[in-house]
Amino acid sequence: MTAQENSIERIGARLASGETSISATVEAALASAERLNETLNAFLQIDRPGALKRAAELDAARDGGGDTTRRDADSSTSKAEASTSDGATMKGALYGIPIAVKDNICVRGLQTSCGSRILGSYQPPYDATVIERLNAAGAVVVGKTNCDEFAMGSSNENSAYGPVRNPWDTARVPGGSSGGSAAAVAARIVPVALGSETGGSVRQPAALCGIVGLKPTYGRVSRYGLVAFGSSLDQVSVFGQTVLDAATVLQTIAGRDERDATTADVEVPDYASELRASGDVRGARIGVPRALFGEGLDPEVRASVERAIEVYRDLGAEIVDVELPHAKYSIAVYYILATAEASSNLARFDGVRYGFRTEEARTLSEMYRRTREEGFGAEVKRRIMLGTYVLSSGYYEAYYRKAQLGRSLLKEDFRQAFERCDAVATPTTPTPAFLIGEKTDDPLSMYLSDIYTCTANLVGIPGISIPCGLSSERLPIGFQLMARHWNESTLLRLARAYEQAQPFGHQPRVM
After folding, report:
1. Which one of 256, 328, 369, 392 is at 20 to 30 Å from 12 when CA atoms are compared?
2. β partners of residue 105
């Protein structure tokens, strides 16, 4: 099954025509998840009873006019009319579409472990805002996906429940931290999935798994119900089989949320309609920071990305050179700020209110210490210690404050770049997927996997990764585009134009 055949648009058309039912569609996704999970370890929880119950309710509502666009009868609902590609009308493009959700996003009735033993099988008493909006659109959550513990990682090897494996080569990583969601989409289990980004944790696994990964502008999508890692960096993001898939989900989940003060009251465009209306990119200006195509970049990745840039030239876009002089400091800046925020955010996991608590402690102080010692994994402990260090007396000025200044310089770099171009193009990752275990003893090498993606999180701008080729070992390669704040429309239009000019027709080994 190709990505196009498993897209939201194709599934929606089959549902609208009566070729299949929502229940059958969801059953197929569940069966695929169960069949492949022993191989991929992509899911931490598969909700067969809940997903089938909801699918049956949606079938009944569609056939009988009832209203069951939420998991629970006591929740607020809404329905939207939308036309599918063949002109048939049904209740929204996501109505009846199966979706997977990263296990750091709260879904009422399902676990939210964040891939950590310290939370374990904790079930939140509420839905994240993005889940409320997906439910209102008629989507069906089929399960929670594996992730690096508390979203800390670039390979999905840091989960307390074992690594996720790449559907293209199960000896290799899918990328992290949203590797479970990426693997679920790449293996055609679901057409779309939610992940989260702090330094590239959707775009990076999207590139390594050969799918589309979209990070919105910071503030475009509510973080209410997303377990915090780095609050000034985190953003719920989207995986899709196609650019149109990612646009459809973003359109559904985006918008102001009174429960999240960081969301902006900015109009959400009709991304899907915009994409269908125009694919012309003539006159668009794409900036290329040539200095980032040098040392450390795999030659096959460089060649694939340069070919992708030439495709844009052939489509009528103008290619211009831009400078991002402070991008070389982005990894240092990111890992100071992210760990500082993590050390603060993770202080709440102490065994008192929820989750894991050590069984052998004689004093309150010992209970705190042993709970965190036994509940957190090595990478989380490393980042908490780094964050505590850079915030400590005597080091705050030397590290944290300088990192904030570095972030300001990066913002200015991009502001100047966008005066010359509409989008900046770079590789998404420096290499294709690497072997499981290859970098676990070298944290610095692992951190460098985020070198091309963390800048967008630091600056707060949107970014998208699009597959653009295969390596000699038949591993996916992706390139990314980044645009001005709130300018996802430009990214999606450019990405869709490339996707249509150069369809990625390859399929993973495991699906």
Report:
1. 256
2. 226
CA distance linking residue 368 with residue 444, whole number of Å: 29
Distance from the Cα of residue 407 to its chain's centroid: 22
Q: Which of 182, 204, 186, 103 is nearest to 146 (CA)?
A: 103
Q: Which of 328, 293, 296, 295 is nearest to 307 (CA)?
A: 293
Determine how β-strand 423-427 pairs with β-strand 82-83: unpaired
Label residue 109 left, alpha or beta by phi (over 0 means left) and psi (-120 to 50 means alpha): left
Catalytic center residues:
102, 177, 201
What's the pLDDT at 415? 98
Q: What percent of the chain has pLDDT over 90?
A: 88
User: What one-letter code names the amino acid at 110?
Assistant: L
pLDDT of residue 83: 34
Mean pLDDT over all residues of the chain?
93
Global pTM value:
0.94
* Three-state secondary structure string covering 62-96: HHHCCCCCCCCCCCCCCCCCEECCCCCEECCCCCC
Pick left, alpha or beta for residue 481 (phi over 0 → left; psi -120 to 50 → alpha; otherwise beta).
beta
Q: What would the pLDDT profile of 463-475 be if each residue is shown by its tens digit?
A: 999 999 999 999 9
Helix (H) or strand (E) holding 180: helix 179-186
Residues 446 and 321: beta-carbon distance below 8 Å: no
Contact 112, 105 (CB under 8 A): yes
